[in-house]
Amino acid sequence: MAKISLLRPFAVAAAGVVLVATGAAHAVAAGQSTAAAPASDIAGVLAALQATTGAGAPGAFAVIRNHGDQEDTRSLTVGKADLDGTPMNSSWRFRVGSNSKMFTAVLVMQLAEEGRIDLDKPLRDYLPDGTLPDGWTMTGRQVMEHRAGIFDHTNDLLEQAGEETTSAFEARIRTKVYDPRDLVAMSVKHGVQYTPGSRYSYSNTDFVLLGLAVEHLTGRPYPEVLNERIIRPLGLRKTSFVVPDQKIRGAHVTGYLTNDDRSKPLLDSTEQTGSWVWSAGAVISSAEDLDRFLSALVAGSSGGLVSDASLQQMTAALPTPTAKISYGLGLRRISLSCGDVYGHGGIVQGFQTQSFATPDGRRSVVVFANASNNGAVTQGLMNALEPAFCGKKPAAAPRTAFAPGADVRSTDAVDELPVVEDTRI
Question: Per-domain residue ranges for the chain?
């Protein structure tokens, strides 16, 4: 049974964060309208969440946060947080997957503002000697945009012929501890995939390299820099980066990996080192913290994370081969019927999240499901974004009927947001 609640605004941990929350409510990106956002279509969001659980996820939730003079938070939960029957809880922690790329991108932009990295010079100049071969001239900007021609090392770890995803997870992911430099070396063996800057191709290795650049330029481990520059200043009490610790501390949702053979049961994949994606995907967080982070980010200078000039660079997204989806510097842009939203998606074994905000910071939406390796689950979450941001459509559209293991491309729904490329992990 679905649960809908109207929550009080999230508590603020420190005076500095009060300014972030206040600034985010009024910050407006250049050229963006300040008109009030349409009322969310709660029934439409709920239908998308129910389709998500109908497709095979034990549970799902959506948290819709409105900022401004009348702040409110809508929390919709469907299904279970674990297979023991615990109801889904939208305040609990989970693995955010590739939403981690936004955190890494912010660190890089801060270092660029300090003059410690030039995004238009070869990234290899800001990495330990030997990390990338001589002659690899792709720039930091091209790497952040996924236009560097760098092979995604996760292809080697996940797509071994003849193995089920669950087998690959147990053999190479759950307990393995990888040095990030070894992940890069795995990628480098494949050579440059195309002329840097000539096309778009999503690569987790890009953001592993950026994490290594952060360490090299600061002389400190990535988790320390993340804590010092983002987590502590924003008071993100449920956000952490604990690689290679396998556990999620505190109250958290249990994640389940869908077996390639749908007749086999879901695999509890909650405990894993996260080292195989490192700075590209190993952050643990919550819907509340993701809202606070996104609100600070889209506020630009008043948010305390990046300057207005840096935010303009991050949101200057270029088209990708996927309709309605563009990519900037660590930020994805989705074009909805009521305008563009910015954020990221993330899928890591057992967990799926889409986290987006309007350019003016007036609304943020976090949608989540605790199952992966299931394209219909991903499509269900994507379908929650349009009603959450844009409200009811003028005319009713055919509903999508999801079934576990269904081919999402065979639906008759109109105006669906496409499943984006990081869903493969």
Answer: 3-424
What fold characterizes domain 3-424? Beta-lactamase (3.40.710)
- Pick the catalytic residue from 40, 75, 90, 98: 98
DSSP strand pairing (267-268 vs 325-327): unpaired
CA atoms within a 13 Å half-sphere pointing along the CA-CB vector of 43: 4
Q: What is the C-alpha separation between 140 and 74, in angstroms, rounded? A: 38
pTM over 0.70: yes
d(CA 218, CA 262): 46
pLDDT in tens, 66-117: 998 778 999 999 999 999 999 999 999 999 999 999 999 999 999 999 999 9
Q: Is 241 helix (H, G, I), strand (E, B) or coil?
A: coil
Let me know if 326 is a catalytic residue.
no
Residues 309 and 112: their CA atoms lie apart, in Å, by 11
The torsion angles phi and psi of 25, rounded to 5 degrees, stand at -70, -25
Q: Cα 190 to the chain's mean position, in Å?
A: 26
Angle at 151 between CA 173 and CA 381, to 5 degrees: 60
Residue pair 217/242 in contact (Cβ under 8 Å)? The answer is no
